[in-house]
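Sequence of Chromate efflux transporter (Brevundimonas kwangchunensis).
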Amino acid sequence: MYHPSPTDPALTEPEPSPPPLSYGALFLRFLKFGAMAFGGPVAQIAMLRRELIEEEGWMSGPRFNRLLAVMQVLPGPEAHELSVHLGMRAKGRWGGVLAGLGFMLPGFVLMMILSWLYFRIDFDRAWVGAAFLGVQAAVIALILRAVHRIGRHILIDRWLWGVGLASAAAALAGVSFWLTLPAAGIVYALAASGRRGWAVGVATLAVAAALAIRVTTPEQIARASLDFVATSPGSVAPRILFLSGLKAGLLTFGGAYTAIPFLRNDATAHGWMGDGQFLDGLALSGVLPAPLIIFSTFIGYVAGGPPGALAITAGIFLPAFAFSLVFYERLETLVEMDAVKALLEGVAAGVVGLIAVTALQLVVGLLTPLSQGAVLGAILVAAFVANGVWKSKLAPPVILAAAGLAGVVLLRL
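Predicted 3D structure, token representation.
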């Protein structure tokens, strides 16, 4: 068997680096990637890997794999974070900023245009409303499929399963995620390090704190209607929307779908929009060349017009820029620290529980009008099965379109 020596060329070969590029050329390169970013994170990452790593050698394949593993643990859209990191590798921090802006700009501009057009749709026409209801059923199916996919990769041992289920139960009981998620991270970090007694103790304290808050805080029930449609953009302050986006951006573990519970909670609890409009925004983002998290732009537009759209988008993408720009070379070392890794894994398991509950609440809201619940339930099941069987990057937009057509045909019979 061959054993390479310390001086073997295979071990001493220098890490490849990006070719010389001007700032303008770098921005245009990633703007092109952004304009072609269809098919979700898997397709987007594959595109970056094929052109920049395999064809042009911006870094070695093993280093790219390690970097991708780090980005999957950290919050934020992985493809965008990779773009920032690769841009910084090419031209320093300004290169990272330009690469990140280039990658997100096409999707942001298109979502702004679609948001503007959304308020010019005549929802009073029966067939338009039926089409959007069908699409909303398909969007919920995609969320349910995402819960299964994300959970399969995150809930890999019984402690993580326990953290996820406990977080889901806490969400159903109305406990704030500001308590649930830190507790989830700490409990799993303690359990992973062998201090299971301490983990049980922290979990007990978290339950006691939740009960105390429940007793001392007046109960507020937010009701969000699937058919609520604002007729014009609202006037929520950009500062509020920026903070909402920043919160979601910092808690987006395991993909853009995990931002859904946080943005939905803000949007519906504060009356910015109903669940129907929220699902419409998700549907629009699913057909754009952009990270799915660009649906936040739609929420900002509905809540606060163009300034609100800009503010919430800046907030939700800021962490994706910051992790690469601030830490850069330290990212791999930071996330490989056992305590930090376990803490983030626990938080991610908690987020899976939250998004599962959010999906359940959306299903209940969809099926509540009994007159159309059976039809919408059938569309949801069909879309769920189709999304599981058909793995093409074209699947989401085609399924959404088919669901809209099914809504028109079946709900207008």
